[in-house]
Design goal:
Helix 3 runs antiparallel to helix 5. The chain has about 140 residues and is mostly helical. The chain contains 5 helices and no strands. The mean pLDDT is about 90.
């Protein structure tokens, strides 16, 4: 015979009559053991259903987390792209300013000099509209 465990249970008052009868006839413990053995399939099915429900909830949570991470990653990629664009504009503008510095006065008033100035101004305007600190153009 296997070792027995002792449990305290609480039952509704309206079951008292039946509990007393069970105690007097087959015994409450024996009745409960028999019922549990008869219903192990139902008990296991309930447990498995609960596990499935937990898994479904975890899948939903993971799906939400995946969406959140994908959105953050997309936002991060957009930010990286914008920062790359800004850095490229800053570098291009600095290079154009270096070229302009090396031009002689006559060359500054030529078509090439004017196009260079227009391009620098256009880049500055773009950087300004992106909220870039224009002092970055003066740093070397």
């Amino acid at each position: 015979m296997s070792k027995k465990n002792r449990y305290n249970i609480t039952l509704s008052k309206d079951l008292e009559y039946y509990v007393d009868k069970l105690i007097k006839t087959i015994g409450l413990s024996r009745f409960i053991e028999e019922q549990i053995r008869r219903h192990t399939g139902i008990i296991e099915a309930e447990e498995l259903n609960q596990q499935l429900e937990n898994i479904e909830n975890q899948k939903l949570d993971l799906s939400r987390l995946e969406d959140e991470i994908r959105n953050k990653l997309e936002s991060n990629q957009e930010s990286i792209s914008e920062q790359t664009k800004i850095n490229d504009l800053i570098n291009e503008t600095k290079e154009l300013m270096r070229i302009k510095k090396r031009l002689h006065r006559k060359e500054l008033h030529s078509n090439e000099g004017q196009e260079l100035t227009d391009k620098i101004n256009s880049n500055r305007q773009s950087l300004s509209s992106l909220g870039v600190d224009m002092s970055l153009l003066k740093r070397e």
